[in-house]
Amino acid sequence: MVQKVSRYIFVLYILCLVAAGCSHTDKDALALYQQGRALREEGKQVEAMQAFIEAAHSGTDDEALLGRVYSNMANMCRQANDHSTAFEVYTLSAEHFQKAADTLAYAYALNNMAWEQAAMGHKDSALALVEKAVRVYPQEPLLEKVRESRAAACLFAKEYDSVLVYTTPPANEYLLTLRAQAFSYLQMDDSASYYAQVLLPRTTNLFALDDLYYILTHNDSTANKERILALSSDRADVQKAIKERHGELTKAVEILRQELSPQKHSSLWIVALIFALGIGLCVWGAIIRRRERRLQSEKSEFEQARLFELEQNVRHLQETKNLRQELAWTDFQSFCTQTDRIFNAFTGKLSAQGLNEQDIRICVLVLIGLSHKQIAEMLNCSPKSIGKLKDLTARKLGVSGGQLQDKLQKTAIL
């Protein structure tokens, strides 16, 4: 029986090799990658995307090269304003750079993922990814890119004063463009126009030019009518170029989305599936263990991001001048609504475990990290009674008083 199974597996292996050899060209991944880069420079976005997809499916084991391939595809998605697909492909890029042990490229990929999260309005997730990138590679040239992502996250979140903090000169062209936009949104027209005039002759990026022309035609009170008409005409040319380029990029990204779709099965995937079925009995245990380790790693990264968000929110509440007002303290329903917005349905989770109104208030204050004296002031009772109340609440959650804060942190991040 074992011999028959072995022969069956061997035959399947040979068939896979033959099928793979017949269904793929002899071009190597590096040549396809370079071809894709050249086509992008020529403005042939669809052909470039097809070259990158072929490179990704070439079967190469060069993880660093695959990381660059996926990074280029993600850049094209970003330029087409498809931020969800860009984030997905940047994630693939990060995985390959991590396997290649290229820490700088891995950190850049994380930072690019952060930018896409910011563009989708997920500021907290973006900042968590930025912090992770800094932990991976805490030095230049990454730090300047990190600064760009933080400033962009604040801009997308409409926190324009924070944008000005992150873009304080000296800064590169991108940061100064964000600074000009922030001044424009804050209706500080003179400052917005000043930076726009400085940047206009130095910038070649079409999207940045569109923003700068907009600022100058809407915020520059010193420009005469002829000057504004000339700027408007230039802006119309830029927008036309953007529209043409966007159309090509959209077609290219659609090809990529179809490739990423689970319904599309190329011959390579079919061969891989047959091969996996043939040797499944031999490697099933190893696959299960590897999957468990990967899921554990993903869970750990998710919890780290949520813990970072929790720490940020706790720090904000600790520094607030009027905690009662911040938490809508006078009305319990409003208090729960505000707390759940800050701490991810926190009071609802506690209520489901049988805690009453007083228990929930204590848990929130313990989570924030207030002292017994501060908790007593919030609850209008003596500091001596706080220890007993904490112990009673902790027992309801199945832990000791000393373990209560850790228990609450886990509740808040899960």
List the helices and strands and how they pair.
Blueprint: H1 2-23, H2 29-41, H3 45-56, H4 63-79, H5 83-99, H6 103-119, H7 123-136, H8 142-156, H9 160-166, H10 173-185, H11 189-199, H12 206-219, H13 225-260, H14 267-278, H15 280-319, H16 323-326, H17 332-343, H18 346-352, H19 357-368, H20 372-379, H21 383-396, H22 404-413
Helix pairs in contact: 1-14, 2-3, 2-4, 3-4, 3-13, 4-5, 4-13, 5-6, 6-7, 6-8, 7-8, 7-15, 8-9, 8-10, 9-10, 10-11, 10-12, 11-12, 12-13, 19-22, 20-21
Structure explained in plain terms:
The protein is mostly helical and 414 residues long. The protein has 2 domains: 2-178 and 239-282, Alpha Horseshoe (Serine Threonine Protein Phosphatase 5, Tetratricopeptide repeat), CATH 1.25.40.10; 300-413, no CATH class. The protein has helices spanning 2-23, 29-41, 45-56, 63-79, 83-99, 103-119, 123-136, 142-156, 160-166, 173-185, 189-199, 206-219, 225-260, 267-278, 280-319, 323-326, 332-343, 346-352, 357-368, 372-379, 383-396, 404-413. Helix 2 (29-41) runs antiparallel to helix 3 and helix 12 packs antiparallel against helix 13 (225-260). The radius of gyration is 28 Å and the shape is flat. Mean pLDDT is 85; it is low at 21-26 and 263-267.
